[in-house]
Amino acid sequence: MNWKFKIKKPEAGTPLNWEIYFPPGLATWASEKTKQLLSEIKLPNQPEPKLRTFTEKIKLENTNSHQIAYLFQYGYFLRDIRLVVGKTEDWNHFSSHAPVELPKEIENSVPIVRNLFQDPDKFLHSEIISFLHGSYFEKEITVTLSLFGESSYIRGGKPQFSTSAPVPEDLAASLLLQGKEFGSWEGTDPAFLYLPFAGTGTFSTEWELEGSDTDRLRFPRSFVFPFLKFFPEKTISHFQKQRQSSPKGKNTHLWLDTDPSLKAYWQKEKTRWEKIFGRNLDWSFETEDFFLYSPLKQVIRQKETFFSSKENSSRPKLFFHMPLNPPYGFRKKEIQGEDHLLYPKIADRIIQLGEEFQSHCRKEKIDLSFSGFLLCPSEEKWMSVRNKLRNFRQKTIHVTHGGIDLRVLFFDLK
User: Fold this and answer.
1) How far apart are CA 161 and CA 164, in angstroms?
2) Annotation: CATH topology of 169-217+246-413
């Protein structure tokens, strides 16, 4: 087999080639975010990465495992990081034979990949195959090794809930990061995350992950990366200390949904994540109607908690953020009426809550940022909300979830 193989010595500082995958529809944003993360690395004498962005992936060249370790640890929005282990043109490249030839070439690459592990005999042949991916373009087949093994959006702790269809964790992390950017949250001011249609709480757990800078190796699941010869353990420890020293604002979360059976699930979920984070979480749960319940009363109750750390001479700030992924209640048959009426009703409620918070914060002399985003499954529903939120600054992106083209409308009341 004539392999183009560049990993002569699999050492941590060796510049290698990688493929970075992200949720569909986020190519430009994911590329910029990857560049930003790579620029945060404070290590001397690192190679200059070369990025080429494609529809579904980024080809990242001239990048060593120290740099990849940072993406691995804190790129929660990434779907996968794969090491390019081999390329070959030595195969039957007629298009009709490609689907059959690709598994053969993956099989042929196993001896190369096995050599990359610290303990080559630790993994079965079938396990190594499960970590590998192949793609072909024109005459060339490329084989890559996933650093995650399983899909990266699997955090390892969330059980199923029969009636929930959650957004994948990597997509949720992507949307939350964009929401923070759109709402201009710097990360040091108090934040109130209000999660209507909470379901299994994916948006809340992903917010906490990114805000606390928790590294992936604390997740209750296994990864391939730590078993490789070039895994930079000391660099990982350095990154952890570096990020943990950054100042963080207080976060309070309120989960809201209509199904009483969710409360037991939520409490177990909170307990699971408190073990991962090693601290108590300020998450509260309500089974109420989004269109009737006001979260402002909780903000008022927690005023001293929110702003106790602020100096008396400074004007306090509050970042209110509301991710909306309806219609959980609709799927449960708990919201009556026509589906097309739900989104205008949500828009009206966003306006009401914005006015309510704005009025209270003016009275209390609090600087308010009121923002969020809404997932819309059709152009008609997106337009019905967009037209109503005329007094809000807006941005729309397109993503794909479960084969459905979603319009995500970000809104910010100024």
Assistant:
1) 6
2) Rossmann fold (3.40.50)
